[in-house]
Design goal:
This is Ca-activated chloride channel family protein. The chain is of the alpha/beta class and 328 residues long. Helix content is 39%, strand content 21%. It has 2 domains: 2-19 and 48-82 and 300-327, no CATH class; 88-297, 3-Layer(aba) Sandwich (Rossmann fold). It contains 9 helices and 13 strands.
């Protein structure tokens, strides 16, 4: 669709007529500045009245066309593409996922893969459901890394989560550094702390990093960042041994007390996932606790076309000036 951004500029088309109508004509200067009697020998024959009329008419029409083209360029002609609906973020959602060595334990149900694979399946579906939110991904082990900044491109975030390798950030667990990384990322974005949520998933205790979880949680609370913590790991169960039945706890390294403390300090909530179904239910609850806001706005891609009439007008004006100089 063709349109003009500033159609009111067309009112300036009458300016030359107004100037000619109401301003006095310029006084012609007929007296030469330098008298050189010998120059007449080199002058061409004077133009006939018809030639002068044709030249004057050509100049007038050329100037008139140039003025029209410049006014068209000033009105900003544009080509508008098809309407596109863009989502407007309701909140900023950061996912912090533990990729330490213990995530390779396969205890999330009979026949289920390791903890990391279960998280990839369930969290990947959760990411795709968060239409309208900007999502960021943080991976942490011995160190915390920002894998993706906040973005509407949920497919890319989900794909990067699927490509995550256990131990890529180290074999230990730096919970405090992961929270600190989320705070640092939000601090660099304008109004990012408004409706900001961090979902932190881990299967262990803080045993690495530079920031203690309590200190990081206090800083998050000051920034208005709500943190939902998820502890993953199989439930205690009995197994057969040489000495008979005995109870084992696959998630004995999980520091649930610290995860509850983090959630309480920031206004979030702590969840415990022992298998794929409970993890799926946790993410379903998060959808209810932090529902997506599906606001959107309609935009049209715009291509500016003013350069074409502007370039044509300048080219004609250059040719007129050249013609004028050669004849005069």
């Amino acid at each position: 669709m063709f349109d003009f951004a500033w159609p009111w500029m067309f009112t300036s088309l009458v300016l030359p007529w107004l100037f000619r109508r109401f301003l006095p004509p310029a006084t012609a200067i007929n007296q030469g500045i330098l008298f050189a009697p010998f120059i007449s020998a080199y002058q061409e024959k004077p133009a006939t009245a018809l030639n002068r009329f044709q030249l004057h008419s050509l100049r007038n029409w050329g100037v008139f066309v140039c003025w029209i083209l410049l006014v068209i360029a000033a009105a900003r002609p544009q080509w508008l593409g098809k309407e596109t609906e863009l989502p407007e973020t309701g909140r900023n959602l950061i996912l912090a996922v533990d990729v330490s060595g213990s995530m390779e334990i396969a205890d999330m149900g009979d026949g289920q893969p390791n903890r990391m694979e279960v998280v990839k399946q369930v969290a990947g579906d959760f990411i795709q459901r968060r239409e309208g939110d900007r999502i960021s991904l943080i991976l942490f082990g011995s160190e915390a890394y920002l894998q993706t900044p906040l973005t509407f491109d949920h497919t890319t975030v989900a794909n990067l989560l699927q490509d995550t390798v256990i131990g890529i950030a180290g074999r230990e667990t730096a919970i405090g550094d992961a929270i600190g990384m989320a705070i640092k990322h939000l601090k660099h974005l304008q109004h990012a702390s408004e409706d900001a949520v961090l979902v932190l998933l881990t299967d262990g205790a803080n045993n690495a990093g530079h920031v203690q979880p309590r200190k990081a949680a206090e800083l998050a609370a000051q920034q208005g960042l709500r943190i939902y913590t998820i502890g993953v790991g199989g439930a205690p169960r009995e197994i057969q041994s040489f000495l008979g039945m005995r109870m084992i706890n696959p998630a004995s390294d999980l520091d649930e007390e610290t995860l509850r403390m983090i959630a309480d300090l920031t206004g979030g909530r702590y969840f415990r996932a022992t298998d794929r179904d409970t993890l799926q239910e946790i993410y379903n609850q998060l959808d209810k606790l932090e529902p997506t806001l599906k606001n959107s706005r309609v935009v049209r891609p715009t291509t500016e076309l003013f350069i074409w009439p502007l370039g044509l007008g300048l080219m004609i004006s250059f040719l007129l000036a050249l013609r004028w100089w050669r004849t005069d």
